């Protein structure tokens, strides 16, 4: 190694040690800085785990965002017991692994719900009986999310499943469905307020 490379390595090790000390004292900014130093390695290591459909920058951004939140929560509560920088890196690796596994399970659940909603059977064949006609409804009045909620509800999905698919709570899905139906009924009765 050259002298400059050795100096850079020494500086990095010193910085990591100082960050570890601050992290042990509950400093979330130090945790964010340490994670930023490690995130390229973590992204590279876990991108392949997300599978070909989810290897985009956005998916790894979501992963790193979730890791950052969890890491900061542990640091804020002062529950981190890492005795050195190597242990801290191992801890981050474990958090990233667990988070990526949870993301994959969540994506698989959503995909399964969407397939059922679209009338797909387990063997991949299509069940047209699941779909109800929607041509009589003025769905064009609704925004994209409301239209999706209405269509999924018409396909007999529970509000909790609709919430999972749409990324909202079951209560929000129920309220959005009721408001959307009311708006479409008013439009069909000639009381469109737009």
Structure characterization notes:
This protein has about 190 residues and is mainly alpha-helical. The protein is about 70% helix and about 0% strand. Helix 2 packs antiparallel against helix 3. The termini are far apart. About 5% of the residues have low confidence.
What distinguishing features does this structure have?
Arc Repressor Mutant, subunit A, 194 residues, mainly alpha, single chain, 7 helices
Structure in a nutshell:
With 194 residues, this protein is an all-alpha fold. 69% of the residues lie in helices and 0% in strands.
List the helices and strands and how they pair.
Blueprint (H helix, E strand, L loop, with lengths): L2 H22 L3 H20 L9 H20 L8 H33 L26 H11 L4 H8 L3 H19 L6
Radius of gyration: 24 Å
Q: Percentage of helical residues?
A: 55-70%
Mean pLDDT: 79
Individual helix count: 7
How many DSSP-defined strands? Answer: 0
Q: Return the CATH architecture of the largest domain.
A: Orthogonal Bundle
Overall number of domains: 2
Largest sheet: none
Strand content: under 5%
Shape: elongated
* Uncertain ranges: 130-135
What is the distance, rounded to the nearest whole angstrom, between the alpha carbons of the first and last residues? 71 Å
Report the top-level CATH class of the largest domain: Mainly Alpha
Reported by name, the CATH topology of the largest domain is Rna Polymerase Sigma Factor, Chain: A
Give helix and strand order, one letter per element, not per position: HHHHHHH
Q: Structural class, from helix and strand content?
A: mainly alpha
């Amino acid at each position: 190694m050259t002298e400059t490379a050795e100096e850079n390595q020494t500086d990095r090790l010193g910085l990591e040690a100082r960050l570890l000390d601050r992290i042990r004292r509950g400093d979330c900014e130090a945790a964010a800085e340490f994670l930023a130093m490690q995130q390229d390695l973590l992204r590279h290591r876990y991108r392949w785990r997300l599978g070909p459909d989810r290897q985009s920058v956005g998916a790894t951004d979501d992963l790193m965002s979730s890791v950052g939140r969890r890491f900061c929560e542990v640091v804020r509560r002062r529950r981190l017991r890492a005795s050195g920088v190597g242990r801290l890196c191992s801890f981050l690796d474990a958090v990233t692994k667990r988070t990526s596994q949870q993301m994959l399970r969540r994506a698989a659940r959503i995909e399964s719900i969407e397939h059922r909603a679209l009338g797909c059977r387990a063997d991949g064949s299509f069940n047209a009986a699941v779909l109800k006609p929607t041509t009589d409804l003025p769905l064009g009045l609704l925004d994209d999310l409301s239209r999706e909620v209405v269509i999924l509800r018409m396909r007999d999905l529970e509000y909790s499943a609709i919430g999972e698919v749409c990324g909202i709570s079951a209560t929000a899905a129920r309220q959005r469905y009721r408001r959307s139906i009311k708006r479409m009924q008013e439009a069909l009765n000639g009381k469109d307020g737009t």
